[in-house]
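Researcher: Next sequence.
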Amino acid sequence: QEALKKFSNRITVLPIVDSKGKFKGILRRHDILPTQDIKSKKILVLGLGYVGLTLSMILADNGFSVTGYDKNKKVTKSLRNKKPTFYEKGIQGYIDSQIGSNCKIVDDIKDINCDIYFITVGTPINYSTKKPDLSSLINSIEEISKKLKENDLVILRSTVPIGTTRNIVKPIMEKFSKLKVGKDIFLAFCPERTLEGQALEELKKLPQIISGYCNKSLEITEKLFSQYAFTVINVESLE
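Model: Next structure:
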């Protein structure tokens, strides 16, 4: 925030120096400004269960270009035929108006390139180990990380144990993308917290809790959610 105050129409680059005044590099204004035209960004939602489908419909209804993907082809086929795979009050109206318009449903993401990736896959409890099964989450992160380009954002929406974003998701993203989280690509965790039967309204009215791996991750994510949610609650980034 202090650095932003130093910029002007004429000053778009600032020098970085250490405590001894030694030149260490430069900082450009666009490096710390949040994404300006967030609605120009293309969104991919991985997992079209209860969490993913309701989120996709709200994003599409608010003008975002959304692609929805699920590994279960029965789900994608049903949705392309505009038939929901579960009951949720009001969802049929969203499906009728948005699928085929602002939202397309696909069986394969091999040729899909987006800017923002929501991970909404299930993490069910394994009753023999008493721990959540993160295999679908890990597979999804590996799949999209091969496609990531500079300035892309990954948002984890699935319910996961503490430390999953930092200790599991981040290393996978960096390994498969060959890009650095917090510098080249960005990462956030925004827990799902809607009640069945009221999800479509609560997505717009409940405060959305967001946290980012770095300040820019946080700023981009806040800008995205603020397009449709009444309230966004920030949790500090790790920076």
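Model: Residues 164-177 form the longest helix (14 residues). Residues 37 and 223 are 9 Å apart (CA to CA).
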